């Protein structure tokens, strides 16, 4: 096993990318490692002519992934938008790995992200000693992507201050990054593009300007359409994380995962799965990513403080923590759900008792 806690997508799935490259005979856009068809196969999974099986990285609409890939084959940047936990960053990383072979050219958006993270910065020791020079310049991930014809990723674009966001406009429209201090510029090499992600819930934090919106093709990633789809996503990611973390525990039973996903979906939708009972909704998003976290945490508890088999008491604390973000409002919502739904559901008594114990 590797000692790296989390490998980049191009490292973790290097064998799949190699097999796809060998089998891919279709036309590739400039600087692309794979054709659009092979990129889609890498993201969505399938079987190659030599019977090699490519695992799915995204479970959902095929057409959405095709639209995203087609956008990146043009001169338009891509914006992946959706509520938390809809695999925006996951899709962004794997698109970069398949298309450019490098998913590390990343700008992480925060309230403190400055313009130098998008354009360039300076090595101030050299700047003070020698003045502005090419050697004193510190290129941003986006500048490096422009120079080498690769994909740059901008995570959580709406968390970045609006004036900093707009520094992308010249890059996206002119494919040029001016460096006025050196009286020069960096022109984008063929293959360069940008994948940005944004959170629906954060749209009001730093709204994108109209000028920036016009330079982005937007793809909305929805929450999983069915419980079976969401259970499949959670199961696959938990198995992958369990291997990476080397947890000495049994793979969680599908029934236990289904119960957790059911709780998340019902609270997220504001009604029970049969549609007969309306429910109050918590303030949190109840995303698929959080469901994965609850199951993984339960697996760790079972491995290190149990017999290796995940049970209701292993997931109860994580489940309560995922729901109760607001200690007043969400607690009321959670306790009502426990008493009216979980307590009355056949086969859920153990989950009710475990959650009730933690909620006291």
At a glance:
Helices cover 48% and strands 12% of the residues.
Shape: globular
CATH structural fold name of the largest domain: Rossmann fold
- Helices and strands, in order, run as HHHEEHEHEHEHEHEHHEEEHEHHHHHH
Q: Structural class of the helices, strands and pairings?
A: alpha/beta
Look at the structure and give the mean pLDDT.
92
User: If classified by CATH, what would the architecture of the largest domain be?
Assistant: 3-Layer(aba) Sandwich
Calculate the terminal CA-CA distance, rounded to whole Å.
41 Å
Q: Beta-sheet strand percentage?
A: 5-15%
Strand order of the largest sheet: 4-7-10-3-11
Structure description:
With 360 residues, the chain is an alpha/beta fold. It has 2 domains: 9-220, Rossmann fold; 227-359. The chain contains 17 helices and 11 strands. The protein has helices at 9-12, 14-23, 36-44, 62-72, 88-100, 115-118, 124-130, 141-148, 162-165, 168-174, 210-213, 227-245, 254-269, 288-305, 312-323, 329-342, 349-359; strands at 46-47, 53-54, 77-82, 106-108, 120-122, 137-139, 151-155, 176-179, 184-187, 193-199, 216-220. The protein has a 5-stranded parallel β-sheet. Strands 1-2 form a two-stranded antiparallel ribbon. The protein has a two-stranded antiparallel ribbon with strand order 5-6. Strand 1 (46-47) and strand 2 form a beta hairpin. Helix 15 packs across helix 17. The longest helix has 19 residues, at 227-245. The radius of gyration is 23 Å and the shape is globular. The two termini are 41 Å apart.
């Amino acid at each position: 096993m590797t000692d790296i806690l989390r490998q980049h997508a191009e490292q973790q799935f290097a064998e799949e990318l190699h097999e796809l490259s060998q089998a891919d005979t279709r036309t590739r856009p400039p600087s692309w490692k794979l054709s659009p068809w092979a990129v889609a196969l890498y993201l969505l999974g399938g079987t190659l002519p030599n019977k090699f099986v490519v695992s799915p990285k995204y479970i959902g609409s095929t057409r959405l992934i095709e639209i995203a890939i087609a956008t990146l084959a043009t001169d338009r940047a891509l914006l992946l938008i959706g509520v938390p936990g809809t695999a925006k960053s996951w899709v962004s990383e794997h698109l970069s790995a398949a298309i450019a072979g490098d998913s590390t050219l990343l700008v992480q958006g925060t309230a403190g992200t400055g313009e130098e993270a998008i354009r360039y910065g300076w090595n101030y020791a050299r700047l003070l000693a020698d003045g502005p020079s090419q050697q004193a310049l510190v290129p941003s991930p986006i500048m490096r992507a422009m120079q080498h014809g690769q994909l740059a990723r901008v995570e959580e674009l709406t968390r970045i201050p609006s004036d900093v966001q707009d520094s992308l406009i010249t890059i996206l429209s002119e494919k040029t990054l001016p460096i006025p201090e050196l009286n020069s510029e960096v022109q984008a090499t063929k293959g360069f593009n940008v994948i940005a992600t944004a959170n629906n819930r954060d749209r009001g934090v730093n709204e994108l300007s109209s000028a920036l919106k016009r330079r982005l093709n937007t793809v909305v990633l929805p929450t999983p359409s069915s419980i079976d789809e969401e259970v499949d996503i959670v199961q696959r990611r938990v198995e992958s994380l369990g291997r990476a973390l080397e947890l000495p525990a049994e793979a969680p039973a599908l029934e236990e995962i289904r119960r957790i996903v059911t709780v998340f979906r019902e609270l997220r939708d504001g009604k029970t799965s049969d549609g007969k009972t309306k429910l109050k909704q918590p303030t949190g998003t109840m995303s698929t990513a959080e469901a994965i976290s609850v199951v993984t945490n339960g697996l760790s508890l079972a491995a290190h403080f149990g017999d290796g088999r995940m049970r209701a008491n292993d997931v109860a604390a994580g489940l309560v923590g995922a729901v109760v973000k607001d200690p007043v409002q969400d607690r009321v919502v959670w306790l009502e759900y426990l008493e009216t739904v979980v307590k009355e559901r056949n086969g859920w008594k153990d989950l009710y008792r475990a959650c009730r114990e933690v909620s006291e």
